[in-house]
Amino acid sequence: MKTLTEMKKVCCLGRFVLLVMALGLASTFSSCSSDDDESIPVYSIKDVEGTYSGKMQTTSVAPLESTGNETEEGVAVNAELKDNHILISKFPVDGLIKSIITDPEAAEAIIKAVGDIEYKIPYQAAFNDNKDNILLQLSPEPLVLEIAMEQPSVKAEGEEETPKLTVKVTIKADEKGKYAYEGQKLTFAIQATEVTVNEEVFDTFPATTFSFDMTKK
């Protein structure tokens, strides 16, 4: 009888040990699974949003005159991506103005009068097949500059008005922009294909490409 009791105790002890081991293994697997889940990156289209800084390089079919601010490395520029728009708060337009206004002094005066130009580029974002890049389908709209000339002109019977130039730049984007997760790099390009001044086509304007190479801050 005593032997039977001892056997029951051993059996109960064995079951207890097995239960403890089972719980330990379950905890280990759960921990490993949790660690694995944390190591898996979670991607979102909104990862492309944020502020960027970098360079804008200008190239044209016929080289533009130097603006004095451009170098071979390009012009420093900042951008913000939000709500499916690329916002460039200070879009460099020196080269555009100098290609239209041939008088250097007049061009510089207009550049100063125009000041900072804000330009928005709508886009639609989508992942590439490998999900290591976000591609941006750009839909650029015309860039319009309202330029007030300094010299007043006589309107009629002594009334004076300041003449204005309305410059409209047609812009397109043939290729998609790209945001790369590696290095958080943003690259895209837009092309100015036509310029009208007061609704008349400016025939001598060279087709110009603006290439952006930027890094997320």
TrEMBL record:
Claim: Signal is one of the keywords in the record: yes
Protein name as annotated: DUF4840 domain-containing protein
High-level lineage: Bacteria, Pseudomonadati, Bacteroidota, Bacteroidia, Bacteroidales
Record keywords, A-Z: Signal
Species this chain originates from: Bacteroides faecis
Signal peptide: 1-26
